[in-house]
Amino acid sequence: MQFDESVFCEPQLQELLVGMPVEIRKKVFFKKIPAGETVIRKGEKVEYAYILIGGELKVFNEFENGRIYVFEKIRPISFVSELEILAGELEYVSTVATVSKCKMLVISAKDFTKWIACDHTVLLRISQIIAKKMYSTASKTGAANFLTGIYKVQDYIIKYYQERKSNADVLLIGKKRQQIADEIGVSLKTISRCVDKLNSVGLVFVRKGKIYINKDQYAKMLLEINNLK
Questions:
Q1: Which of 68, 71, 129, 174 has its CA 20 to 30 A from that of 115?
Q2: So what's the architecture of 147-228 in CATH?
Q3: pLDDT of 21-71, one tens digit each?
Q4: CATH number of the domain at 3-145, out of 2.60.120.560, 2.60.120.10, 3.40.50.2300, 3.30.2290.10?
């Protein structure tokens, strides 16, 4: 389905696409992708650029030992594979999959290159997005190299708590241990060992395998991690 027919009325999208040449716009397609589907796979030939306009994506690398490291989540409105195209690379550098049902615009790599070459507004927008990604990655990489396994887990739990801004006395960490392991780049065994340790010293509590944290535990954990940093 061509995107003008259903999604061009979105104000943010109108602003983003206003400088796209008509001949390119006619070849852009609108696509719905179910949750759990791979959009692009690491090592495959770069053929398309994508604009995420609905849903959530995850970016990850899978290593030879079978471990998966999820290092980024993408939410609307965002570009996918813009880095490879701008760098002139022929292969996708990471795998991207849908976390939830997604709506995307699909543009050939060739047309995407033509578009950004003549539309300085969208080129600036892409440059800002890439700069933010690089800043965030540099910050996370520095912390990851410094922190031991248990502090990586504490840092994850603190950020999870802060993002939810829960007013409840007790918050459930609503992620499976394997998901946490994937997102912070450690093994499942490390997660289990760290959670057991945090439970034993009273910084979290575990019920039927699920991880919970209350306000007092959060405050103590935050103080501990801040002292480390």
A1: 71
A2: Orthogonal Bundle (1.10)
A3: 999 998 999 999 999 999 999 999 999 999 999 999 999 887 655 667 777
A4: 2.60.120.10
Parse the chain into domains and list their residue ranges. Answer: 3-145, 147-228
Mean pLDDT lowest among 64-68, 73-77, 116-120, 159-163: 64-68
pLDDT above 90: residue 145 = no
Place of tokens 């007013």: 167
User: How far, in Å, are 99, 104, 140 from residue 75 at the CA level?
Assistant: 10, 11, 19
**pTM score:** 0.61
Number of H helices, E strands in the chain: 9, 11
Q: For residue 54, count other CB atoms closer than 10 A to its CB.
A: 16
Q: Which CA distances in Å does 69 have to 36, 40, 88, 176, 219?
A: 16, 16, 25, 15, 28
* pLDDT on residue 146: 44
Is the pLDDT at 169 greater than 80? The verdict is: yes
With 0-12 CB in 10 A as exposed, 13-18 as middle and 19+ as buried, what is 191?
A: buried
Instruction: Please give the Cα distance from 29 to 50 (Å, whole number).
Output: 10
Token couple for 52: 């995420």
